[in-house]
Amino acid sequence: MSRTMLNMKYRLRRTGRPFTKDFQIYFERDDDGVPVSPCHDIPLFADEYGGKVLNMVVEIPRWTNAKFEISRSKSLNPIGQDILDGNPRFTTSCFPYKGYLWNYGALPQTWEDPHSKHPDTGAKGDNDPLDACEIGQKIAQTGDVKQVKALGVLGLLDNGETDWKVMVIDVTDPLAENLHDIGDVEKHLPGLLDATRDWFRIYKVPDGDLPNEYALGGGFQDKKYADSVINDCSDAWKRLVSGKAKFGKISLDNTTLEGTPGKLDPNKVKLPPDEDLTPAPIEQDLGEWFFVDRDSLESSATASLDNSRLRIVLELEE
Fold first, then answer.
1. pLDDT (0 to 100) of residue 48
2. Is 256 contained in some domain?
3. For the region Disordered, what residue ranges are annotated (predicted)?
4. In a domain, 318, yes or no
5. CA-to-CA distance for 21 and 102, rounded, in angstroms?
6. CATH number for 231
7. How many Å apart are CA 103 and CA 133, to the nearest integer?
8. In this structure, is residue 38 part of a structural domain?
9. 208-238 in b/e burial notation, b at 16+ Cβ within 10 A?
10. 56-108 per-position pLDDT tens digit
11. pTM of the model
């Protein structure tokens, strides 16, 4: 029996040991237990809000470091932990941040088309669903499905690919009634947007990578622009799931979309048994913080990374 209910619509089935490459989180509809894909079967728009509110699948809760993500290639796209060099990946904390600053996840039924160059970024999409940063007060859990509204968007250039970060807030959050556009975020949560831009720029530096770059001068675009990005990526997903776009190793398996090439008979889909296994030990010390010298990065983006950052280790209080 599943242990987590998601807004009375979806429940989770966990298999494998957490913090290993075998750990997976599958989704089922709560009313009838039909397995669903968080990429394809969960709708982009929440019907009970008249199509004005988005669904968001949470992958990484705020303040945590384990890099969970929806699998593009596995059938029904379960959430698993990203693997780097054969090991589960954890994002290093960069001073003054601890893990991720927001509840981080994806907007279902969207796709950043890797075959299409965006006119404003000059780069093709990153082949993933749209990323979303939920800035409400509540710390979510991996696999939660939140109802959110878009406030704006930041254009990241990650390894030469367009990687949009949509800023959203849970519609039930106490601040939601005051946040309607990106300017409201700066007004009511001053400093959060600057911290977000800074975080995405430096978070890979401790791993030996150069800092990320931004499209559109690194400025946050407003809700109208964010809505256009979401609509474009929704249209791209429709081409993808209908088989009209090159999809490579992306699994199109779904249980609800009649007439699509990936449609499965839900009565024949057998998910692994639900398990409650003890998490594996984490070899990486998540109590380490890295101080990244921003001035050095500004002066020379190609400078030796060993000279552009100073490592300091701080014991984090529980």
1. 66
2. yes
3. 258-278
4. no
5. 24
6. 3.90.80.10
7. 6
8. yes
9. eeebbebbeeeebbebebbeebbebbbebbb
10. 999 999 999 999 999 999 999 999 999 988 889 999 999 999 999 999 999 99
11. 0.90
Look up residue 6 and give its two tokens.
Answer: 């998601």
Q: How many residues are recorded in the chain? A: 318
The identity of residue 125, as a single letter, is G
27 and 10 in contact (C-beta within 8 Å)? Answer: yes
Q: What share of the chain is helix, strand, coil (3-state, %, to 5)?
A: 20, 30, 55
CA distance 269 to 13: 14
Q: How many domains does the chain contain in total? A: 1
Q: What is the DSSP letter of 263?
A: B
Q: How far is CA 152 from CA 181, 226, 254, 259, in A?
A: 6, 5, 30, 34
> Is the previous residue joined to 96 through a cis bond, with omega within 30 degrees of 0?
yes
pLDDT tens-digit profile of 213-262?
999 999 999 999 999 999 999 999 999 999 999 888 999 999 999 999 99
